[in-house]
Amino acid sequence: MFRVGLTGGIAAGKSVALDRFAELGACVIDADVLAREAVAPGTVGLAEIVEAFGADVLAPDGSLDRARLGTIVFGDDAARGRLNGIVHPEVRRLSAEREALVAARDPRAVVVHDIPLLVETGQAESFHLVAVVVAPEDVRLRRLVSVRGMSEDEARARIAAQATDAERLAVADVTLDGGGAPEALRAEVDVLWERIVQETAEELA
């Protein structure tokens, strides 16, 4: 099994790259999806969050009120650290479970892990290859404001809360340019996919 860690800053174009990997035949594991599963109603993760931050972080239906929790942790490093200490281990557990199922079906599979906080959580050494999607900050700001409806101040704060481009590039085996048209990024993923397929074939040979 060939394991790829895919990361990039917010609004850099990572979802475009992930979708293309899936179309090409990779098994994709999305850390954001797993993070939602980890704190779904009835989970240990949600219970621990309530214990740490109080019942006010619950919506009326018993699910996690992400907006409310976000206001608590976003500007508080200690609170965000407590939250990450709850969620990240659960995400890794769920990710390992998904990967084990894939390996059981096809030991030669290519598994792409979409991990926005790959650098921040120190997981770069866990993969055969780390691919980083990059885009200029002004492009990312424009996308966050025009597409996601954020204010410019909010968008800048979101970018500043993540690892820097330099920190991501320091662990990158491959960089993918997400600053232009989606078609261009998809073409770069195609080239990388050919390289991965060739490398895995050579290993098997």
TrEMBL record:
Q: Could you give one GO CC term from the UniProt record?
A: cytoplasm
Which SUPFAM superfamilies does the record match to this protein?
P-loop containing nucleoside triphosphate hydrolases
The answer to whether keyword Translocase applies is no
- EC assignment: 2.7.1.24
InterPro entries per the UniProt record, alphabetical: Depp_CoAkinase, P-loop_NTPase
Task: Give me the reactions it catalyses.
Answer: 3'-dephospho-CoA + ATP = ADP + CoA + H(+)
Recorded metabolic or biological pathway in which this protein acts? Cofactor biosynthesis; coenzyme A biosynthesis; CoA from (R)-pantothenate: step 5/5
Q: Where in the cell is it found?
A: Cytoplasm
GO MF annotation: an example: dephospho-CoA kinase activity
**A biological process term (GO) from this entry:** coenzyme A biosynthetic process
Family membership: Belongs to the CoaE family.
Physiological role: Catalyzes the phosphorylation of the 3'-hydroxyl group of dephosphocoenzyme A to form coenzyme A.
Identification of the protein by name:
Dephospho-CoA kinase
UniProt lineage: Bacteria, Bacillati, Actinomycetota, Actinomycetes, Micrococcales
